[in-house]
């Protein structure tokens, strides 16, 4: 599923193995953050209509003067937007914001609205997915997928639609390995993208993690991001700090199987917060 620089979706489209996340980066800061990321060497930028920063994400990419074919852009259908026509309309808003003609990856942001987590939106998700299949077939999206979907949510799409999702973007970090979901996605050849690979920073205070990072002569953040790769997931680190943006991409080391197993055994720090 992955080589040294890319993962590959089941339709053959490659995606850079590390993405630059822009969640919680305000629109006014997104331009500089994305510019730094591109300067640092990131070629995979992840945003969403709900982040309200697509405009400056797109402007930074355009102003950086990188060819459109050499940058991988992901955006997402808002979690509360469900339905066929609603999806087509939201997609047009996204590509207009970004100033592009196509997306490399488009995801359903969540199977339910954020203010009603757990609500059964299966029928509406199927309609949204059919609209995304249409956009995919028209060449407006190179790959389509989902985010925050559990096994049952994905299975509902597989059973009712033509195209198996190519990606599932989920919270994944040391202490939250989501083993069952990863196995399900691997079975269906779905690339798993790991958002919040640093558990929004909460895992970095662990003394055990710091000691392990020192053994590899890396930072705790680098260890956490590399862990995602060792688990065959695609990390999406986020920062607005130039030094950290660079640091988060410097992952030219491997974690021993024994240490991966030790990291697997960590408790979820966010579950206790």
TrEMBL record:
Binding-site list for substrate: 109
Pfam families per the UniProt record, alphabetical: Aldo_ket_red (PF00248)
UniProt keyword annotation of NADP present: yes
Alphabetically ordered keywords of this record: NADP, Oxidoreductase
Site (Lowers pKa of active site Tyr): 76
Record-linked Gene3D superfamilies: NADP-dependent oxidoreductase domain
Source domain of life: Bacteria
Start and end residues of each NADP-dependent oxidoreductase domain: 17-266
Active site, per annotation: 51 (proton donor)
PROSITE patterns: ALDOKETO_REDUCTASE_2, ALDOKETO_REDUCTASE_3
One GO MF term: oxidoreductase activity, acting on the CH-OH group of donors, NAD or NADP as acceptor
Similarity remark: Belongs to the aldo/keto reductase family.
Name of the protein: 2,5-diketo-D-gluconic acid reductase
